[in-house]
């Protein structure tokens, strides 16, 4: 199973990272639609797509306006867009209002049911997360494989049971530990609690993402701190491909 990290930054893009989007190309499954969503086109391998939004903050949805041409030029047959009903309504009302973007792509806006079937016998479920305006985390279980995607949340320990035992945990880590106060104020995560979650949940691999765009160096969140707690931790980078 292969996943591509199309965008690993938060809030706004910088020279190193675009904002949130993950894709499983062989399955046509996508998480979030940030500024990196323009890269979806080059990884298309299916005629049908399922997009799962965590929430409707701009850094996670603005890329939905980038996909008009692939849809108009028949590069896909269908795009089903899942999210909480209130978030989908906000996207339709505001992002795609006539004054901002008057051409609405032919998305199938679908409020999240309790579970969703995805290709290769996968079952997706979701959990509410603590974040201003609300967010959701996702988990997919296939026969022999599992993945969890948790972004824009405070208090990682609250979803311990949800991510327990997954092969791959992709979790936001916007701040290093010395900015823990800012994490609490903004509803985001910092390094140590995320690594402690991975250890307690007995996941196989942890990938840290949704990085503060003001930090453009090679170690924006204190990767060695995380690895001391949970050794199989890596820092996500744009266009990184992972097998799990």
Which SSEs are present, and which pair or pack?
Elements: E1 2-7, E2 21-24, E3 29-31, H1 40-43, E4 48-52, H2 58-61, H3 68-72, E5 78-83, H4 85-95, E6 108-111, E7 115-118, E8 122-129, E9 135-142, E10 145-150, H5 160-163, E11 168-172, H6 180-186, H7 191-201, E12 205-209, H8 223-229, E13 233-235, E14 240-243
Detailed description of the structure:
By secondary structure, the chain is of the alpha/beta class. It has one domain (2-243): Metallo-beta-lactamase, Chain A (4-Layer Sandwich), CATH 3.60.15. Helices cover 22% and strands 29% of the residues. The chain has helices at 40-43, 58-61, 68-72, 85-95, 160-163, 180-186, 191-201, 223-229, and strands spanning 2-7, 21-24, 29-31, 48-52, 78-83, 108-111, 115-118, 122-129, 135-142, 145-150, 168-172, 205-209, 233-235, 240-243. The strands form two sheets. A seven-stranded mixed sheet has the order 6-5-4-3-2-1-14. The protein has a seven-stranded mixed sheet with strand order 7-8-9-10-11-12-13, covered by helices on one side. Helix 7 (191-201) packs parallel to helix 8. The radius of gyration is 17 Å and the shape is globular. The mean pLDDT is 97.
